[in-house]
Design goal:
Blueprint: E1 2-5, E2 11-12, H1 14-17, E3 18-19, E4 22-23, E5 28-31, H2 33-38, E6 45-53, E7 59-68, H3 70-92, E8 124-126, E9 133-139, E10 142-147, H4 161-180, H5 182-185
Antiparallel strand pairs: 1-2, 1-5, 3-4, 6-7, 8-9, 9-10
């Protein structure tokens, strides 16, 4: 039995709850599970007829038993599994864009004026492991940040506080200069 309720929980009759067979906005529907089982589609059911024989080989009658066609359920489960796998692949490659093979290039071969440029081989980057400046290179179909060789790298660690402060100040000022001019290189 199906029962309809309004937003406050008061029961409604079917004429107030439905609008041309469609449940109105804000109406809640409660259906018993036994009622739902009775609504099962008969197209998914079939009868299996079994012939019975006695030991002498004479016919002892037949019996019919109803069974549900499992192929429909198997197809439904396969479609769900396929959709899940497709969603996983799509989300794992979504950051690459539509063209996963050469995702750093624009679709159609050229950038539109209102289109973000995206990372390109040769662009400056920051390495994940050592946090050094580097350049993007293509390795095995992916853009990877490789550190640049440093000519201004200090010989090694220092225990001199004045030298350590000088190195930190120099690196901080270089970082500020890079940030101040970053907007000039962003659209090139």
């Amino acid at each position: 039995m199906t029962v309809y309720f309004d937003a406050s929980g008061r029961p409604l009759d079917e004429s107030d709850a439905l609008d041309n067979g469609v449940v109105r906005d804000g109406v809640r529907v409660r259906t018993s599970m036994m009622m739902r089982d009775a609504d099962a589609d008969d197209a998914h059911r079939r009868k299996r007829v079994t012939r019975h024989y006695d030991p002498a080989g004479r016919s002892a009658g037949t019996s019919a038993e109803e069974e549900i066609d499992d192929s429909v359920m198997r197809d439904a489960f396969q479609r769900v599994a396929d959709a899940r796998q497709e969603a996983i692949e799509r989300s794992s490659n979504a950051w690459r864009g539509r063209d996963a093979e050469r995702w750093w290039e624009p679709k159609g071969g050229h950038w539109m004026p209102n289109q973000a440029r995206g990372p390109q081989p040769g662009d400056e980057c920051m390495t994940d492991d050592t946090h050094e400046r580097g350049r993007l290179v293509v390795e095995n179909g992916d853009l990877v940040c490789r550190a640049l060789p440093r000519s201004d790298a200090p010989d090694g660690p220092t225990n001199d506080p004045a030298e350590g402060k000088r190195r930190k100040d120099e690196a901080y000022n270089a970082m500020l200069a890079d940030k101040a001019n970053a907007w000039r290189n962003s659209g090139a």
